[in-house]
């Protein structure tokens, strides 16, 4: 069940119903404040984890880029050159992805965290300030009303008139503080539907853009992957053929050596 609306007319009578409804709005405000604090913490943790991951990815990229293949022989075949340079392609892939992640993380504080914290500080903070003012005026009005109701009828007409005027003034201060507080609670409740959610949407779209860029980078890498896989398969096939020939030559060598040794012994 949603919150009941706060009505100015109910506040004028300061009825138990108004106070109960007001308290439900205050509880919701406290819950929202706590939830935003948790959200800010989780976003900060996520950004910190993303930065740690980015550093690890760049370290891996550097290692791959500096990895050297030494091939047998004075010259390399085309396949060997492509395979030897493949780690540099992997390094460029990782580095390009991390460049995109850096662009996201560089604006994370200004674009995401600061607006969320500003909403909590300015909107919820101002509501809490309005609450303090309302509670202060409520206390003053109640104290003055109690004195007013306890006035003796023996007071002079001037004194009664002054007490009545003072009570009316305190009542107006109370009504003004009450209306400002109700208005602010309504404002925060409405603003979080668009101003706060817009910021969170922007945060989500930032991550989706990063993932989309990663997909684009992967698509561009597809041709490199296909060529490398073709050359790796050809190199594997050549290795298997050569391996069989090498094993056959080795067996013949060992057999001949055994025959020679046998002749020498006899």
Automatic annotation (TrEMBL):
Keywords: Coiled coil, GTPase activation. One of its GO terms (cellular component) is cytoplasm. One of its GO terms (molecular function) is GTPase activator activity. Signal peptide: none annotated. The keyword Zinc-finger does not apply. It comes from the Eukaryota. Gene3D superfamilies: Arfaptin homology (AH) domain/BAR domain (1.20.1270.60). Residues 6-245 form the BAR domain. InterPro entries: AH/BAR_dom_sf, BAR_dom, GRAF_fam. Residues 22-56, 225-252 form a coiled coil. PANTHER family: OLIGOPHRENIN 1, RHO GTPASE-ACTIVATING PROTEIN GRAF. This is Rho GTPase-activating protein 26-like protein.
């Amino acid at each position: 069940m949603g919150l009941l609306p706060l009505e100015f007319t109910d506040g004028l009578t300061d009825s138990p119903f108004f106070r109960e409804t007001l308290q439900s709005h205050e509880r919701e405000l406290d819950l929202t404040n706590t939830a935003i604090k948790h959200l800010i913490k989780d976003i900060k943790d996520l950004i910190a984890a993303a930065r740690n991951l980015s550093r690890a990815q760049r370290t891996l990229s550097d290692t791959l880029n500096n990895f050297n293949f030494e091939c047998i022989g004075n010259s390399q075949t085309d396949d060997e050159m492509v395979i030897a340079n493949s780690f540099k392609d992997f390094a460029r892939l990782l580095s390009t992805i991390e460049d995109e992640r850096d662009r996201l993380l560089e604006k994370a504080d200004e674009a995401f965290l600061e607006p969320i914290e500003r909403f909590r500080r300015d909107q919820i903070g101002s509501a809490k300030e309005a609450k303090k003012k309302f509670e202060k005026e409520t206390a003053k009005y109640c104290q003055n009303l109690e004195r007013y109701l306890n006035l003796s009828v023996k007071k002079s007409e001037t004194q009664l008139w002054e007490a009545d005027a003072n009570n009316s003034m305190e009542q107006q201060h109370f009504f003004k503080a009450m209306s400002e507080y109700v208005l602010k609670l309504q404002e925060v409740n409405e603003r979080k539907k668009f101003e706060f959610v817009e910021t969170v949407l922007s945060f989500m779209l930032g991550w989706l853009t990063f993932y989309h860029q990663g997909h684009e980078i992967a698509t561009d890498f597809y041709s490199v992957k296909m060529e490398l896989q073709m050359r790796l398969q050809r190199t594997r096939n050549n290795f298997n053929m050569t391996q069989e020939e090498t094993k056959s030559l080795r067996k013949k060598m060992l057999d001949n050596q055994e025959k020679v040794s046998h002749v020498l012994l006899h």
